[in-house]
Design goal:
It is built from eleven helices and 16 strands. The protein is α/β, with parallel strands linked by helices and about 350 residues long. Strand 14 (about 220), helix 7 (about 230-250) and strand 15 (about 255-260) form a beta-alpha-beta unit. The chain is globular and about 55 Å long.
Amino acid sequence: MFELPEEIQLHNIVETAPHLGTGPETLLRLPESLRVHLNDNAKERAFHSTGCELRFRLKSPSFKIKIQTCDIGGLQHGGGLAQVLFGDFSHGYVPIILGENEFEFNAPVHDNLAKVSDHPLFHPELVRILFPTHAAICGIDLTGDFAAPEPGDIPARRALHHGSSITHGSGSITSRETWAGISARNMEADLINLGLGGGCHCEPEMTDYLCSRNDFDYAVLETGINMLGLDPDTANANIRNLIRKFTTAHADKPVFFVGVFPCHNDVANNYQGRAQEIREFVEKEVKALNQPHAHFIDGKQALDPRTGLTTDLTHPSPAGMIQIGDFVSSEIKKVSPHA
């Protein structure tokens, strides 16, 4: 792992590895032992830093950070924006370009922040550096005087999200403004974002890994648009395996399977195409379990295509991300208000 001060806490980062076995060590959201067995898109997107954070308390008046990025897919989305927050409060946005990036931030007046937020989700003295949705981070250097996060600085509950590029954050402005980030915030939970743009195929290896994790309180699994690119029999088998194995492995935790969000396939087929077939298949499989903690959420209802989609008629606009995040969290609260 990078040589960071020991006080720095990493979030949504499991290890580093060189891309294709060569090049600089790069942050990973999935173990390298899993990544190498996934499809090509997932192999790249596992390096993308959506939902990845550095967390610490700041003892000095300011801090400097250097961020080095490398070219690992996703450049059509741009480098993206990193965001610095003090607790729940946004402190600034900075564009992250390919190569070297260097920034300095001064601390705000913490006492005033505390007056505004009596019951914060994240404590206002906790500094959070959120990396962009599609950057590949291969170097970090922090300068300042730091302290480790304290008990109560971070939400007690954690939400595990997995899905396609829509969960990953394509179309969002920052990692916090993904629909998964908005939904987790509405649920007062800390987000683990394992979205894989173009690469959510629900392979058995990925399912086994999700089953092995036990560091969350509830899960939201988007059986999304990437499944349209697979042979229907393969897609259905992968989805069935995910639903059955994951709910068995986590029978005591609320699990929400989200059907495909509105997309171009719906527009072309008046909601009677393959996307709708997948929604109906997921709903049928979840209902067949008759498991009280397993729930289906119809993604077709999650946004208004007229205001929530971009011109590709698949990825949400920033407004669409808000619509989806609010919809999914409201659906969760209907059946499991304390998920």
